Protein 1
Amino acid sequence: MERAVYKPLGFRRLKAGASYHQPSTYKPVQADSPAIEVMTDLQQVSAATTTADAPLSQATQIMVSRGVRLLLVTNAAGEILGLITARDTMGERPIKMIQEHGGKHGDLKVRDCMTPIENIEVLSMADVLRSEVGHIVATLKAVGRQHAMVVDTNAAGDESIRGIFSITQIGRQMGVPLQAFEVAKTFAEIEAALAA
């Protein structure tokens, strides 16, 4: 039942030396921890997205503001058209596009540098649920990638992206310091942590 009258709460002064809470989204893991513990679950966290027509610089800005290095590229209906990573927006791909087609960096759109849907490889949610963190690290190392997407399939056979693995997040949860784009070094550091 709704109340007719609500009393305001009382304020008080904040004590000197107070700190603030920070989210503890990264649960510490080991190599034999369930893989699901290092997956960004899109049922729990909103996917970071952009459109194919967005300027490349805007995609980079979205990644920075969301604290991610991968965006799903979607259309107005929410269907996935592809994906784009920080490496795609700030690495060699934009430079090659400019060299091959002319223009300026500011002219590039997400569609110019994204990986189209037909080239995206995904892991099965069923496989992930039977896997450990070490399996995911080995998988990412085998393909030389920083990310892997996980797909869920419903009874009708329709697919949807359920989650994303990020080598950076795995490193954080394992307590291994990582730097962007240093995949070879990253895997070496994580393997050392796995062996410890």
Note: The radius of gyration is 21 Å.
Protein 2
Amino acid sequence: MVSIRCKMIVKEKLKELGLPYTIVNLGEVELTKNITQQQREQLKKALLKSGLELMEDKKAILIEQIKNVIIEMVHYADELPKTNFSDYLSKKLNYDYTYLSNLFSETEATTIEHFIMLHKIERVKELIIYDELNLTEIAYKLHYSSVAHLSNQFKKITGLTPSFFKSLKDKKRNTLEDV
């Protein structure tokens, strides 16, 4: 689960199946009691119909937890942690960072660092579009060492400069008749 919408769908399916829960977070559900194998299969089918998957493999679950911690940290936290991302992930998930990093790289064919970078750039795009902060403030908020560092990383990932990206949002779309 990587969005609020996914959480809503999971809550809905749990209610439909009469499965009591205490918490539905990104990537995990805490049920108030154990469920039968039949209930597990019903939940699995219901989630699949909505495009979601019930994960049972411990490594796959850990990968999802890594992704969810990063997504929550970058997109939903008011402020990024003051510590290194590696320390933050290790503390949050109670695993050695080297293990997390190796598992993530093997499974996802990218590094945790690259995954974080991609999400930070998506957050930068979002903040540029909202137009509430200037680039200096965005760089500070997302812990970039400088605006130049943010701009270089933005261009490397998107192929555009932040200012060009901002100018694109200001342009109006043409109607179909005008194309």
Note: DSSP finds nine helices and two strands in the chain.
Protein 3
Amino acid sequence: MEIITISPRGFGANTYALTEDGKTAILIDPAQPRVESELIKRGLLPAYVLLTHCHFDHVGGVSALQASGAKVFCSEAEKPLLGTQADLFDMFGAPRLPYHIDETLTDGEEKNLGGVLVKMLWTPGHTAGSACYLITAKDGGRYLFTGDTLFEGSIGRTDFPTGNIGEMRASLKKLAALKGDYPVYAGHNDPTTLDHERKTNPFMQE
């Protein structure tokens, strides 16, 4: 499986495009409308969108991808936050581009999306419905996409609407308890590994 990082221009989150066949892609947190043109450059069609949470800097490209036929997923607990103050569009004065959730996932639920096994882990703290995605590729490779729950050496903020530091601590313990090591792709900053964060991230050692 190829993992393509589309870095934001200006303020935004990292977007990840996952492809097994070089033709279709799973997008994680398409942050900006230009994500669609980046896919076109690479000859990829958007098939699925996985949202870790609904903050404006993670969803700016969803509308265009959904219009192109992509099916949009998020956690069951995050869906009610769309269109509320919890998505931060109003707080930061960002323009809303409409989209809707096609399907929600419950904690631990698995979906086979085009041969890629996706497991949703509910990790509240940054928002009440924040999620991480444990991805298993066709070749058995496993990858963890953590949104704004876990960063290299840090964590996401808990002072926005529906954020909660106690829930964040519990979510970090949940990630730390996963068996084995995984490459970690976060919503912001550089990739890391789960083992590295277990050993060095002060927030995972509390």
Note: The chain has one domain: 2-204.
